[in-house]
């Protein structure tokens, strides 16, 4: 309870700060200001991973406070994720060029969600800690609260730019009936960057990053009749049988770092090259057994993006190539229970490996007229997904090809009103698949792995549609309403979601 109260107080202070910053900005809302978030530099937004380059994000003050409601229903879903979720959220954000040399930006958000029918996963932050979950066969619904904050500062000088950014995310999840869980996670990220101007005709930017992640898991049972066994899962449905049973408290402790480089043009502004590397290592400990470490997960991400832009009198064209390599390596402890003082770690073996590589080629056509903006961005990507568990030989390999197109249209309606719409179509086809999966007397785990494999081995068609209407109710105040829908067809099953947002722009 103490951690929850502290997080709420921090969030309240941050919200007050953001609202004060919003109120400080009094600027007339024009069409040029409204379309700032659609400008061509969003096509190569990888450069803004370096906070020193945020002065190029836009030239207008842009602040927003909005409320959001969403509902997600996924009949075809990963069992360890919810198949239905409804959420309510608040978000305050601001981008503020204070003067020609100083830029500030910030964000604070709160989301309260109800997640339904999660099985074989009593942990949170799925993508970060996968596959090392604390789990049981019962599962159920979760009440989830998340808080997030981001703040940044950039300063420009004649020959060099400096920038710094900090973000903090906290999540609290609980269930009111057996298995009763209480999970708390925190994720702190820091970045420092610089950008050297006109080095052999180019701007060269570099940044370094630090990350600290923690998550605590606590499971309890009030029923005096029976309770399910608790598992500490490893890769592809396997677990250490010695830990099966009543180890009800776990703690994840992670440390990460990263660095990146950006080459951007000094004059022509037509070619950008970015490279980024991030590593996050997360250890899982059993708190009830003298903090015995049972696994160590290494998450690594390496990304390259090359963007070329062509300008004509009335239009802008662009082409971009992305290479993304994401990997997970799991090291598991060999444990003995005969030490006399609890569990003892005898050795550690590398038993799990996941490699996910994506090559993506995308283009853009951007037309900006006086009263409207039209954007269309087609893309094609190839994905190579390989997941292995070595202790008991098990694997699943997939090759995907995805083709899609995104488009946006924004128009000034006159009478201080604006409308925007967006459409996204994509189709993912499975080119090849191979699998050797668990299928034994642990029927529930075998069924879970089989279900997840079936989802990964399915073709998928996705259709997204969104619209927004906004109106200047005052010279410096813009009211907006928006709706976004998402429909995915997988194996003749439709997953759908809808998001409603409304708020004010200052």
First-to-last CA distance: 36 Å
* H/E element order: HHEEEHEEEEEEEEEEEEEEHEEE
Number of strands: 20
Most strands sheet: 18 strands, antiparallel, barrel
Name the beta content range: over 45%
Mean pLDDT: 91
Spatial extent as radius of gyration: 24 Å
Helix percent reads under 10%
Q: How many domains is the backbone divided into?
A: 1
Please state the overall shape, judged from the principal axes of the Cα atoms: globular
Structural class: mainly beta
How many individual helices? Answer: 4
Descriptive account of the structure:
The chain is mainly beta and 506 residues long. It has a single domain, classed as Porin (Beta Barrel), CATH 2.40.160. Helices cover 9% and strands 63% of the residues. It has helices at residues 2-23, 31-34, 126-129, 443-456, and strands at 62-73, 84-97, 102-118, 134-135, 140-156, 160-174, 180-199, 202-220, 231-232, 249-265, 271-286, 292-311, 315-336, 344-368, 372-389, 394-414, 417-436, 460-474, 477-490, 493-505. The protein has an 18-stranded antiparallel barrel. Strands 4-9 form a two-stranded antiparallel ribbon. Strand 14 (344-368) and strand 15 form a beta hairpin. The radius of gyration is 24 Å and the shape is globular. The mean pLDDT is 91.
């Amino acid at each position: 309870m103490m951690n929850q109260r502290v997080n709420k107080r921090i969030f309240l202070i941050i919200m007050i700060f953001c609202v004060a910053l919003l109120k400080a900005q009094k600027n007339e809302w024009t069409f040029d200001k409204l379309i700032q978030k659609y400008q061509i530099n969003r096509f190569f937004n990888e450069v803004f991973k370096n906070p020193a380059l945020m002065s190029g994000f836009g030239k207008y003050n842009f602040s927003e406070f909005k409320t959001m409601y969403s509902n997600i229903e996924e009949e075809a879903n990963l069992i360890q994720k919810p198949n239905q979720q409804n959420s309510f959220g608040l978000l305050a954000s601001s981008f503020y060029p204070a003067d020609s040399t100083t830029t500030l930006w910030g964000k604070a958000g709160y989301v309260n969600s109800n997640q339904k029918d999660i099985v074989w996963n009593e942990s949170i932050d799925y993508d970060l800690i996968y596959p090392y979950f604390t789990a049981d066969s019962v599962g159920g619904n979760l009440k989830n609260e998340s808080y997030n904050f981001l703040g940044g500062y950039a300063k420009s000088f004649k020959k060099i730019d400096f920038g710094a950014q900090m973000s903090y995310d906290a999540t609290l999840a609980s269930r009111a009936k057996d298995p009763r869980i209480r999970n708390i996670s925190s994720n702190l990220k820091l970045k420092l960057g610089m950008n050297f101007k006109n080095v052999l005709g180019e701007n060269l930017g570099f940044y370094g990053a630090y990350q600290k992640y923690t998550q605590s898991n606590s499971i309890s049972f009030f029923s005096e009749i029976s309770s399910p066994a608790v598992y500490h899962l490893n890769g592809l449905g396997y677990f250490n049988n010695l830990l099966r049973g009543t180890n009800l408290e776990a703690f994840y402790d992670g440390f990460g770092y990263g660095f990146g480089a950006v080459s951007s043009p000094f004059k022509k502004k037509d070619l950008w090259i970015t490279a980024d590397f991030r590593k996050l290592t997360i250890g899982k400990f059993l708190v009830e057994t003298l903090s015995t470490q049972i696994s160590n997960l290494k998450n690594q991400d390496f990304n390259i993006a090359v963007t070329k832009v062509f300008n004509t009198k009335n239009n802008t064209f662009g082409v971009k190539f992305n290479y993304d390599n994401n990997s997970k390596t799991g090291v598991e402890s060999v444990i003995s229970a005969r030490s006399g003082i609890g569990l003892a770690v005898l050795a550690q073996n590398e038993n799990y490996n996941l490699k996910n590589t994506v090559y993506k080629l995308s283009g853009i056509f951007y037309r900006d007229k006086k009263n409207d903006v039209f954007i269309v961005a087609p893309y094609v990507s190839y994905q190579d997904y390989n997941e292995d568990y070595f202790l008991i030989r098990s694997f699943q390999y997939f090759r995907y090809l995805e083709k899609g197109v995104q488009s946006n249209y924004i128009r000034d309606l006159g009478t201080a009103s604006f409308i925007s719409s967006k459409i996204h179509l994509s189709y993912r086809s499975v080119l090849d698949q191979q699998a050797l999966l668990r299928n034994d007397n642990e029927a529930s785990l075998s069924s879970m792995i089989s279900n997840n494999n079936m989802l990964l081995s399915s073709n998928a068609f996705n259709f997204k549609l969104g619209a927004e209407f906004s109106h200047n109710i005052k010279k410096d105040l813009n009211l907006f309403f928006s709706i976004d829908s998402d429909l995915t067809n997988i194996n003749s099953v439709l997953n759908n979601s809808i998001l409603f947002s409304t708020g004010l722009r200052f």
